[in-house]
Amino acid sequence: MPLQNRIETAAALVYGQEQAPAVCKEINRIIQQVRQSRPIELLREDFQRPADWYKEEIVYMFYPERFGTQNGQPNTFKDLIPKLDYLNGLGVTTLYLLPFLESPMIDAGFDVSDYKQVRKALGGNEAFDAFIAETRKRGFKIKADLVLNHVSDQHPWFQAALQGDPEKLDYFLIKHHPPKFHLISAKKGKKTAVYHEEDGQKSKRRIIFPEISDNHYRREVVDGQVKHFYHTFYPHQIDLNWQNPNVLYEALDIMGYWANKGIDIFRLDAIQFLVKQPGTHGEGSAETHAVIQLLSASLQAMSPRSVLWAEACQSPKELLPYFGEEAQYSLPIQGHGDKAMTRSDKVQIAYHFPMMPALWASMVTQKPDSFWKIINNTPKLPPSTEWSNFLRVHDELTLEAFSDPKIRKTMIETLMPKGEPFRGGEGVGGRLADFLDHDPKRIGLSYSILYSLPGMPLLYYGDEIGETNDRDFMLKEEQERKANAAKGGASANSFLDARDIGRAPVALEKLVNATRNPETHAGQIYHHVRNLIQLRKQEKTLVKGSLSKVKSDQGSMFSYLREYGESRLLIAHNLSGEESVSRLQLPAHIKVSQIPDSGLINLQTDKPVTFKTHPRKNQLEIALAPYQSMWLKLSPDQTSD
Question: CA 379, CA 370: separation in Å to the nearest integer?
């Protein structure tokens, strides 16, 4: 189906058949406006860049003001330019810049007050443009947040609404009478608000932050009348009304503006919440998926070099619809001709959220069962799309995904004392190194697992040197958040955000010292991670290969096969703190009898591995030290068809 047809179909679903033609006309006007102002070098990349370029990316995420700080001072984008040398040396390819737009910074920048203005504290738009130009020279791609579910209460749209502007009032979800609701408190600290709608329907909505607020409405007086504004998250983040097409037009204009600045990946924040129909739980509605189709089709038409990344904390099967269907497009590129490409018609990338706690459960329990359970419940994706896997990000390590009470209890008892409780114990804030007891062997194992799996690996700033929790920073942010919220008139039960314990600045001196001193704690971790990144770049099997389980006679052995064409990599991880001598059951098409006497090489160390073969059972016996990982290359002459 051509892009235009997809736009028309999606617009009719969200805005109705009668309004759809006018909506499509305005969408096309915005697309043409963006294309007409598109820089020549981006048009060239629109035409030349492979449609699935993102599959080979290795992502590094950081707060621009906090990465590689000097003299205790926050960065501007100008300050970041010399620090690109460090990122080049590490080997990452995509830089995920955590929120950098104007914001009162009550939610670390996810409360946007101006969608087209870089924060003045970061140097403004001019400094950002210079930074982007330098990253492009060095071959980096750029990922940025597109926060479209809500705006800051200090955004001009909301401020105009408070003044009674009827056009801007319609940008928000408003009740004119106090919402009638009751709360349901479930086990594990979860809370749900059940709203009794005026038409008799009941809307059950999750309370995302039960420690902050016990409902989804903020009371304001507008022109002498009380109005209640809906918010999914914090009271200072007011949800937008996506059934008003003017909100869509604003979003497309914003997306086009940043696409023309050179943003390669747009992360769609909290994407499942966009359209909230009465009588529903307000997540993943058909209208929300239609809006995503509109955003995707418009972005392909405006900026074929760019893609969308979904942030939706749901199960793999629930996430699958966010990718949509595979679609073939033919797009005219000014000055270059038509560009034929195949992409999904919604997002192209999504976080594999359940994978993260599954990996942690496997490491904590020293058994890979949780990992294989998630793998077995992960559906096949459209060929052009990709998962992204991670161990830590700026958010909490979620604990709500565990249905097994024993595993959940073990995770809470193990991790909670090493971090800070979040969302009533549904998650825990903290750094990777703290959760792994600052043990370089365990930290190294965690990254050996991450970089050997399918999907785009994502690395959180400072974790590559074993950076630790900072409670003083968390408490400092609490006081600043409270003061900033007061300026906008928002109130909350608490302003402490446990996630801040892992969001502190990381000094440039620490980063540079790790590169220069491989014998130190930080240096060991850095050089191990750097080596893994280089190996992943060299071995296409790690990027494009399939994954299949390799059985072992040891419960703590986590082993699997990666295959791509004739290339095979046997991956083995010892999850325990004891030496493990394990027999690995190879699949029938790989014969242990054909492994030459010259042996196997562990790619991580480039050293030979001692092994035994058991041809009758087609088993390979290897010994792994505590928390050791091996990536063993089985060359084509060690396989049989």
Answer: 16
